[in-house]
């Protein structure tokens, strides 16, 4: 049996563990997310409940633990104690039935639970309240292993990066498209299960501009832990600018020969799945790459998206991966060459000519078939082309990342 003190310490350690879910990637060292650091109204409502319940728990612990301690100290048998009655053992007098005590033992917990349920009902009502001034409604779809953010009314999509205005509520309609996922962004207090065939609504209001860390919270397969995303909260004027530019975006034909080559390779190999506004092709079940050049990350939030690979380094907190015995952060070229090496379970075909198993429709047997092999210069051209897909004048690089290191500014 755990003693009250051990139980209390166990509780503290558990709380510290959930409060510090570690994020694997960032630009300046280890990233720690603190769920108690709320940057949204909903989180503040939930946290109030957490503190009230915590205070009651502490009170109960102190009263019961203190009473137990006092009783043990006062009544324990000491060497040399005499029996209370002649011929009796050292056992104290036995009795049963005490109305006052029994009423107190039932009444006090009922009172505590009643008070807590009032606070819970109030917090639930606040969290579920649908404000009249919803700034945007966004369809959120969880896929193995990435997030699709569909700005349905605006007519565009973005992947793994949810851009929202500061200070205004946004309504998210969360759904899963293949298996069960869970959408969660700890500092904004949002978490909803993403279930196939169902839509769960979630209202988020970011209190201040910043890039918030989000991730999938439901074990969904090989790259569950790699199913990250960012929430970019922009001041309202900047948000409106982003929306109007995203709406108007159309990929043109590049004049630069390398970019034109990249576009050609993209059209031949990638556009069957990936949509880019202004170009043919794409399907809603694959990430939309329309303004990929503006993204802060690639591969569902696990690597920083930079045009110059020399900016990436383990010293800056970038996650590394083994490439034939050398560990280094993955580049977009690595991702295109063999995405499943960079993110296990990725469904995107490799473009390095490696072998994979395909079932022969006639014989029913699995056969080794090579993937398409793109030349290094073609892969570089596609990466450059993707980085060139940008909204003019939009840059998220100067927006602070919200972590425990800088959240209390
Ligand atoms: Cu999706 Cu875990």
From TrEMBL:
Transmembrane segments: 48-72, 103-125
Keyword field: Copper, Electron transport, Heme, Iron, Membrane, Metal-binding, Respiratory chain, Signal, Translocase, Transmembrane, Transmembrane helix, Transport
Signal sequence coordinates: 1-21
Compartments reported by the entry: Membrane
Domain Cytochrome c: 257-390
Domain Cytochrome oxidase subunit II copper A binding residues, every copy: 133-245
EC number: 7.1.1.9
Pfam families: COX2 (PF00116), Cytochrom_C (PF00034)
Topology relative to the membrane: Multi-pass membrane protein
Enzyme superclass (EC): translocase
Taxonomy, superkingdom: Bacteria
InterPro entries: CcO_II (IPR045187), CcO_II-like_C (IPR002429), Copper_CuA (IPR001505), Cupredoxin (IPR008972), Cyt_c-like_dom (IPR009056), Cyt_c-like_dom_sf (IPR036909), Cyt_c_oxidase_su2 (IPR014222), Cyt_c_oxidase_su2_TM_sf (IPR036257)
This protein's record includes keyword Lipoprotein: no
Family stated for the protein in its record: Belongs to the cytochrome c oxidase subunit 2 family.
Described purpose of this protein according to its UniProt entry: Subunits I and II form the functional core of the enzyme complex. Electrons originating in cytochrome c are transferred via heme a and Cu(A) to the binuclear center formed by heme a3 and Cu(B).
Protein name in the entry: cytochrome-c oxidase
Organism: Deinococcus roseus
């Amino acid at each position: 049996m755990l003693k009250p003190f051990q139980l209390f310490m166990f509780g503290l350690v558990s709380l510290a563990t959930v409060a510090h879910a570690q994020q694997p990637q960032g630009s300046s060292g280890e990233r720690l997310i603190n769920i108690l650091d709320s940057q949204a109204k909903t989180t503040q409502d939930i946290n109030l409940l957490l503190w009230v319940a915590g205070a009651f728990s502490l009170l109960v612990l102190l009263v019961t633990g203190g009473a137990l301690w006092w009783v043990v100290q006062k009544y324990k048998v000491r060497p040399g104690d005499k029996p209370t009655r002649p011929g009796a053992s050292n056992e104290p007098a036995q009795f049963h039935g005490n109305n006052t005590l029994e009423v107190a033992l039932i009444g006090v917990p009922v009172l505590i639970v009643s008070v807590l349920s009032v606070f819970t009902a109030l917090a639930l009502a606040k969290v579920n309240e649908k404000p009249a001034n919803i700034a945007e409604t966004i369809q959120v779809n969880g896929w193995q292993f990435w997030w699709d953010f569909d700005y349905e009314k605006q007519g565009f999509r973005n992947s793994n990066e949810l851009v929202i205005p500061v200070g205004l509520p946004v309504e998210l309609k969360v759904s899963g498209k293949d298996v069960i996922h869970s959408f969660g962004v700890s500092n904004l207090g949002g978490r909803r299960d993403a279930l196939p065939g169902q839509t769960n609504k979630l209202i988020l209001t970011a209190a201040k501009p910043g890039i918030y860390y989000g991730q999938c919270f439901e074990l969904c397969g090989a790259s569950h832990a790699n199913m990250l995303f960012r929430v970019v909260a922009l001041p309202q004027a900047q948000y409106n600018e982003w929306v109007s530019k995203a709406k108007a975006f159309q990929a043109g034909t590049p004049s630069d020969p390398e970019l034109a080559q990249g576009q050609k390779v993209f059209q031949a190999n990638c556009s069957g799945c990936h949509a880019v506004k202004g170009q043919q092709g794409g399907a809603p079940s694959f990430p939309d790459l329309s303004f990929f050049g503006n993204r802060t990350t690639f591969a569902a939030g696990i690597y920083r998206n930079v045009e110059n690979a020399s900016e990436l380094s383990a010293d800056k907190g970038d996650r590394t991966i083994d490439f034939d015995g050398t560990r280094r952060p993955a580049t977009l070229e690595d991702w295109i060459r063999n995405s499943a090496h960079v993110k296990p379970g990725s469904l995107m075909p490799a473009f390095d000519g490696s072998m994979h198993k395909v079932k022969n429709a006639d014989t029913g047997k699995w056969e080794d078939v090579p993937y398409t092999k793109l030349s290094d210069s073609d892969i570089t051209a596609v990466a450059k082309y993707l980085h060139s897909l940008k909204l003019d004048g939009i840059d998220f690089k100067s927006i602070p990342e919200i972590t425990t290191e800088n959240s209390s500014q």
